[in-house]
Amino acid sequence: MTYAIILFIVFLFLIIFLFNNLIAKKNKVHEAFSSIDVMLKKRTDLIPQLVKTVKGYMVHERETLTEITKLREKILTHTLTDEERLNLEGQMNQMLGKLQIAVEAYPDLKSSENFLLLQSSLNEVEEQLSAARRTYNAAVNAFNNALEMFPSNFMGKIMGYSPKTFFIIDPLEAELPTISFD
Q: What's the DSSP call for residue 53?
């Protein structure tokens, strides 16, 4: 009888441990996503200033500026799923890359003090965003591993958890740019 009680207590502690471990990993994923969200908000707040500064110089690139503004508005809606938010963020990365390429054609803009300050701020936010993405992916990896590994996989099924999606960069965006000094 005492062995049965000891075994029951050990089993109960194992269940409590697995339950708490999965909750902690799920919360770490949410915390990491929140960090991405904060950096995206920072970047989104910089965009109107950047667009305003650039508009005076760039006549032909209005389409890029309009698209960036539209993406910003979509991102600001709070009814997006995590996957939709990450998708829109990837699109924003592409548009900001196009803007950076377009800026090269405007020497006066490139030397503008306001633009240089905004560009520096945006670069800093992008670096912080990159770090937040790495943290998010590490948290997703730990959570997904726990959902797949024995015995926590049983507890994950009981709790109704499903694997989270990694932040994956578009393959075109990951390619190294061609730099020419011609």
A: H
